[in-house]
Amino acid sequence: MPRLSFDIFCRVVDNFGDIGVCWRLARQLARLPPGREVRLWVDDLHSFGRIEPGVDPQAAQQSARGVDIVHWTQPAPVLRPHAVVIEAFACDPPAAFIEAMVRQDSLWINLEYLSAEGWVESCHTLPSAQHHGLRKHFFFPGFTPATGGLLREPGLLSERDEWLAQPGQRDALLGAIGVPGRQIERLRQGARQVFLFCYPDAPAQGLLDSLERQACPTLLIVPRGVYPGLQDRPGGRVHVHEMPFVDQAAFDRLLWSSDLNFVRGEDSLVRALWAGKPLVWQIYAQDANTHMIKLQAWLDRSPCRQTVHALMRDWNLGDPEAFALRMNEALEPGNWAQWQSDSAQWSDELAGYPDLAYSLVGFCTQRRRSG
């Protein structure tokens, strides 16, 4: 059987979440032995370049980190499909490309959005017949062994632990993103580091209110442009630092080094889970509050206590006053220690399942063999 090769199609919808997932998947597929040809099609190279500085937003075709990158334009470049074609999040490859897939019988995968809902397990890998004769298989990331799992590079948690064992690494990273030396010194003396990556409707002022009430001072790190207007308060206990966007490796390390991570969407949620630290997730909002059902399904799978569940719901409902009260409760010493323990436990548990790229290669290999 020929070695598997992959096309991945990505439309950038959420600025960084879609391309974040696809870029991590592409790199991991390219690295998995015995080495594979991987081509990533992206419609927005400018957003891509903000998380991968090696990407040239003007180039029609280029390579980076072992992956071929194609600017997905209209009309699309005419290229021969690889053995496996992955459309990320139902983004629909070009019609002419699909016709070429039919001619060479490419395996078609629809990589779905991450979900913790129970129905995902029964739908994972199900085929759907298409009008041109191909079958499209739905591949669901998830939180159980009956799904495709989560993206996780080999040895990631060991790399995390080794990095955290050297405090100077954190100090150097914070210095590189412009954190003042006096704030780094406060962290050495026991201040809390909080990372905030949220949507504009998050109750971030409620977070600031809660952190100001704590005895422990806080360094609050916010990527530039994520929440404009969030500033230090005169004489306050919180220092807000606006940081530049960084590549994915530095992003992961910021999550590792923070005591508490606020994340949004899919990619940063998974990376925060691998950090093994307390996290608050803002799920992508949907009509009729459908996203709250999805959030609750995820909370029901987590080992976190009801204090954290209530906090997470209030963060997603967007009420600053209600959230501040929940945050105060969650940061009480006993609750905080439990939250830390639960977070580390779940990270280790999830790392015991096969990762998404490994599961995907296994499924594709089996399908190609069986025809």
From TrEMBL:
Q: Which InterPro entries match?
A: EarP (IPR016633)
**What reaction does this enzyme carry out catalytically?**
dTDP-beta-L-rhamnose + L-arginyl-[protein] = N(omega)-(alpha-L-rhamnosyl)-L-arginyl-[protein] + dTDP + H(+)
Q: Name one GO molecular function term.
A: protein-arginine rhamnosyltransferase activity
Q: Which UniProt keywords apply?
A: Glycosyltransferase, Transferase
Q: Which Pfam families match?
A: EarP (PF10093)
What's the stated role of this polypeptide?
A: Protein-arginine rhamnosyltransferase that catalyzes the transfer of a single rhamnose to elongation factor P (EF-P) on 'Lys-32', a modification required for EF-P-dependent rescue of polyproline stalled ribosomes.
Query: So what family is this one in?
Result: Belongs to the glycosyltransferase 104 family.
For this entry, the protein name equals Protein-arginine rhamnosyltransferase
Q: Which organism is it from?
A: Pollutimonas bauzanensis
